[in-house]
Write a structure and sequence with these properties.
It is built from 17 helices and 13 strands. By secondary structure, the protein is of the alpha/beta class. The chain folds into two domains: 214 residues, Rossmann fold; 155 residues, Rossmann fold (3-Layer(aba) Sandwich). A seven-stranded parallel beta sheet has the order 3-2-1-4-5-6-7, sandwiched between helices. Strands 10-9-8-11-12-13 form a six-stranded parallel beta sheet, sandwiched between helices.
């Protein structure tokens, strides 16, 4: 089958969850199908980035869009109907180009990654799959709880538009997939139970246990300009970490990930290291005794949890972060809610090596059994092909 795969970002480097999912699906689908990739991007796609996808794609088309035009689109859409997250990426010229590529390449199927790209392909008369990935309206709803003023008004508008759009766009596609049961349950369409849940996996050839010296007691990893990560890191540093230091004054925390905001950078101290971009995130996992994900807002699936499990690093998570993972408390993860509970879990794992090792081993078995990219891609193939 020839698949035209449409993405809103070039799927490399893998510093964002949507890029990781797109890259792995392309990589694994290419084993049995021809992949034609079309990706828009806000920066020039380099030869080295292209080289990472060329082994898996018969052809690669890219289109650079400017942030200036994206912000202009947002202004034009203030009184419009599209979600801002859709309008931001929408270009008439790109729509024309995608239709021309579809006419020339004659794909058997179109795979649309994220609703923000659905305007480009919704009217093309070729069988189509929409990957919602996450339920973005649910993310907006959770963000509303912690915002105020003009920002809260903007988020409320986006929430209402996303609710309407996530429902309306459903009928423009033949097939629909999403990353978790939790996200599927929040899609505002009466046929949401027909959406196929295809969770992320782990590249076990890349993420595996490594014996490196433990420089840090606790790790938080992720894209550091992503609002849910920012909020979680500030909660960790300002509320959880002082409680840990009271009992373990020499404890060390590593905050690792791309594009830390000024507020994150200012957390740097004798006990907190803010690394910024890491060339190989595995070293951050391997150098840390514990991985923590105290997510206050969480949609989709937290890849950092799966990656830590694959590297046998025990995890402490919020119930929100664990909903999509489904690990068992006190067996494969520790689940906490308050700052005091997180601090208690950290001290417990640092003080009890047997408990730490048991959770790490259980989590490793759990992730190997439930989050395998090859298995998930096979399920996707069967779903796309089925009538």
């Amino acid at each position: 089958m020839k698949i035209l795969f449409i993405t809103s970002r070039f799927p490399f480097p893998l510093e964002k969850g949507d890029k990781l999912r797109a890259f792995e699906l392309i990589k694994n689908l290419s084993a049995h199908h021809q992949i034609i990739l079309f990706a828009i991007n806000e920066t020039v796609v380099t030869d080295s980035q292209l080289a990472q996808l060329k082994p898996y794609c018969e052809k690669i088309y890219t289109e650079q869009i400017s942030k200036f035009n994206s912000y202009f689109n947002l202004l034009k859409n203030i009184l419009g109907y599209l979600p801002f997250s859709v309008a931001y990426f929408l270009r008439k010229t790109v729509c024309q180009r995608i239709k021309a590529i579809a006419t020339e390449e004659k794909p058997d199927h179109i795979f649309c990654h994220l609703i923000r790209m659905s305007e480009y392909v919704k009217d093309i008369n070729i069988p189509k799959t929409l990957d919602y990935m996450d339920t973005f309206s649910m993310g907006m709803e959770r963000m509303l709880e912690n915002e105020s003023g003009l920002k809260k008004i903007a988020i409320a508008i986006e929430h209402k538009r996303l609710l309407r759009y996530e429902s309306q766009i459903y009928n423009c596609f033949d097939k629909h997939i999403i990353i978790s049961d939790q996200d599927r349950s929040h899609i505002p369409h009466p046929d949401r139970d027909k959406i196929e849940v295809i969770p992320n996996g782990v590249d076990f050839d890349f993420f595996y246990p490594q014996q490196l010296g433990k420089k840090y007691d606790v790790l938080f990893a992720g894209n550091m300009n992503y609002p849910p990560n920012i909020e979680s890191v500030l909660f960790l540093a300002n509320e959880i970490w002082p409680l840990v230091l009271k009992q373990k004054p020499d404890a060390k925390l590593l905050i690792a990930g791309a594009s830390p905001t000024l507020a994150i950078k200012q957390l740097q101290s004798n006990s907190i290291t803010v690394s910024g971009w890491v060339d190989d995130i595995r070293t951050s996992f391997a150098h840390s005794k514990i991985m923590i994900a105290p997510m206050l807002i969480s949609i989709g699936l937290q890849n950092k949890i799966l990656q830590a499990m694959a590297m046998k690093v025990p995890c402490i998570v919020s119930s929100l972060a664990n909903n999509a993972v489904g690990a068992k408390h006190n067996q494969e993860v520790l689940i906490a809610a308050t700052a005091a509970e997180y601090a208690s879990c950290i001290i417990s794992l640092l003080s009890d090596e047997t408990q730490s090792q048991t959770i790490a081993e259980n989590a490793y078995t759990f992730v190997k059994q439930n989050f395998n990219w090859q298995v998930q891609t096979q399920r996707l193939e069967q779903y796309m092909i089925a009538s």
